[in-house]
Amino acid sequence: MTPKDRVQAVVDAARAAQPGWAEVPVGDRAAALEAAAEALEPEAGGLAELLAAESGKPIGQARFEIRGAISLLRGNATE
Predict the structure, then answer these.
(1) How far is the C-alpha of 35 from the C-alpha of 60, rounded, in Å?
(2) Distance (Å, rounded) from C-alpha 70 to C-alpha 79?
């Protein structure tokens, strides 16, 4: 989680990056989202364990959330 004192810097960085991202062709943006999903998929188990340990969530819920994040990336890549 981003510390409170860094939130504005993160928001500012995202706003600064948005115009450049908007110029990227949609096919390239979709490929980047799919690549992110591909990179996360083999790490899903470890990410779920980390999420469960950090948040105190049951491991099943953490796995569900990680799978959901990967699915969201893929869904947005195809829209």
Answers:
(1) 25
(2) 15
Amino acid, single-letter form, for residue 47: L
At CA 51, angle to CA 78 and CA 73, rounded to 5?
A: 5
pTM of the model: 0.77
Please state, in angstroms and rounded to a whole number, the distance separating the CA atoms of residues 78 and 4: 34
Q: How far is CA 14 from CA 44, 64, 65, in A?
A: 25, 27, 23
Report residue 79 as tokens.
Answer: 């829209």
Going 73 to 31 to 48 to 44, the CA torsion angle's sign is positive
Give the chain's mean pLDDT: 95
* C-beta atoms surrounding 62 within 10 Å: 22
